[in-house]
Specification:
Layout: H1 14-18, H2 23-48, H3 64-96
């Protein structure tokens, strides 16, 4: 014989409320924050260090196929970013409120 116990989910269980938060998420949050700080430091030193200027292409001209590939990657990347933002940020936000 099996017995089913159902609880109303309006209030959380006392046992669940007393459990400590998993420490792994805090560690990964600090690792992510450290990478953000490192990135900001590197970009800031590049921008403020006098190395922020355009560089000429050189003596050899850039081949047409290379220009086409570079611009195609730019367009594809922007399209993938827009679709990702739409499907994973905008749609759930509009659906869930």
């Amino acid at each position: 014989m099996t017995v089913n116990h159902t609880k109303v989910l309006s209030q959380p269980d006392e046992e669940l409320r007393e459990q400590p938060q998993f420490a792994g998420i805090t560690i990964w949050a600090w690792v992510g924050a450290a990478f953000v700080v490192l990135n900001l430091w590197l970009l800031g030193s590049w921008l403020l260090g006098g190395h922020f200027h355009s560089v000429p292409t050189g003596v050899d001209p850039v081949p047409l196929w290379m220009t086409i590939v570079a611009h195609s990657i730019e367009v594809i990347t922007l399209a993938v970013f827009a679709l990702t933002a739409y499907f994973f940020a905008y749609r759930p936000w509009r659906r869930d409120g």
